[in-house]
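Section 5: illustrative case.
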């Protein structure tokens, strides 16, 4: 059985949905660095920086980083088709996972904690707001680029909901991205809505965003 550490409404939702799709047994333990509880100490034992999601594998080892976890599950359970069967499409799915992890997710961290990236920002709210404004604009530009790179239909990598769909649908829920792409990349926005409404995804997302 897997153990998944995470907080409802966070990036853990993509991994939670993936575990449901592959049909693997798991338990979800709710905790996070921003709302630590008793379980947070258990998380620190397997992941010293307290990241969520963290997935404890069947052998007791830990795997962090949503993109890495989703890729692992896709490779571990090929019948679930989290990753495409075609080598070319699988390569692009992995590219997309890395794109979000490298370009979009870091912007969310900066928006949440601008003081970590500017020495005097914690003492100047105006500085924080300038950092946030520039970061949000950059984030939305990244999503426009992503939408142009992955125009797949009905889902991002083809006919099946996969790892890239789950990751994209979750990370795009933050920082006004959905509203932005609805205006600037409506076809991509429609794909995200389709992912949200997928019968295996919707029940999980409803738990995270009631």
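Designed sequence:
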């Amino acid at each position: 059985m897997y153990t998944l550490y995470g907080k409802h409404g966070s990036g853990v939702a993509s991994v939670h949905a993936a575990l449901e799709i592959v049909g693997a047994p798991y338990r979800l333990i709710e905790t996070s660095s921003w709302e630590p509880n008793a379980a947070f100490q258990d998380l620190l034992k397997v992941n010293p920086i307290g990241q969520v999601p963290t997935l404890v594998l069947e052998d007791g080892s830990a795997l962090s980083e949503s993109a890495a976890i989703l890729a692992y599950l896709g490779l571990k359970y090929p019948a679930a088709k989290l990753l495409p069967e075609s080598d070319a499409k699988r390569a692009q799915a992995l590219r997309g996972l890395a794109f979000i992890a490298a370009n979009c997710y870091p912007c969310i961290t900066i928006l949440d904690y601008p003081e970590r990236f500017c020495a005097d920002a914690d003492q100047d709210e105006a500085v924080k707001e300038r950092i946030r404004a520039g970061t949000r604009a950059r984030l939305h530009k990244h999503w426009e680029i992503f939408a142009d790179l992955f125009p797949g239909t009905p889902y991002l990598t083809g006919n099946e909901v996969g790892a890239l769909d789950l990751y994209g649908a979750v990370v795009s829920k933050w920082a006004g991205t959905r509203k932005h792409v609805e205006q600037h990349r409506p076809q991509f926005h429609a794909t995200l809505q389709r992912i949200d409404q997928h019968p295996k995804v919707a029940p999980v997302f409803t738990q995270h965003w009631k």
